[in-house]
Amino acid sequence: MVNYWIFVSVPFTDFNTGTIQEMFRKVENSKRWRIGRRTPNRGVLSAGDKILFYQGGEEGRKIVGAAELASGLEQSEGLDSYVKIKSFVLWKNPVDIRTLINELSFIKRNRYWGVYFQGGVV
Question: What CATH topology corresponds to 4-117?
Answer without folding.
Answer: ph1033 like fold (3.10.590)
